[in-house]
Design a protein that fits this description.
Length: 241
Amino acid sequence: MRRALLLLVVLAAFVAGCENKYKDPDPVAMGYDYYPLEVGLYRVYDVKETLYFGETPSDLNYQLRERVDTSFIDQTGQLVYKIIRSKRPSATAEWLDDSVMTAAKSPTMVMLTKDNTKYVKLVFPVKNGLEFVGDLYNTWQVTEGKLRDNKEVYVYENVGLSYEVAGETYPSTATVIQKFLTNSTKLDDRYEVYAEGIGLVHRVSDRLNYENCSSGVGCVDGFKIASGHEREEILIEHGKL
């Protein structure tokens, strides 16, 4: 009887240990809510772009909507979401579908596929200083910036901190520094800010090439912008259809 009781105690402890060992990770601690994915979710952004080619820059202002349209199981068994991007020149114009992307969120990462190119947008857990290769699944090679095997290394900053943009404050966010490089001939400044429960709220992508100058429009300290672009996206609306 005593041996049987002892065996039951040992078995119960073993089962409890297994449950603790294999229980699902805490979604909040992992940061899964920084990239919510659900059919019907949408986000609308104000987009400002400046294109530099020749002497006169070209300014573009429009709105961009990303809407999670449907979901499906791919050939690997992964749940994938189809996201439709739409554009309009102003808030009073009709939306026109522009492109389609897909996104999949696993326990370890978020993978976004756009124009047949895969991007690692986030990895889990989301924590300060954690680095990951954003273009891991691409074929191109880069030679400047923070690299790993000629691939761009992204890093988390300001995880869990509030973030303000365009008069809106988000209490818990995570910033992904994708690249920052600046010298006398080039600027490459790219980052994305994600808010808990919402997703992407602010994206900046500035890539500029400089050339020497002595005077004239745009000449500052002996340099001016020769080519490139500046782009900023700011969230103005989000919800579920």
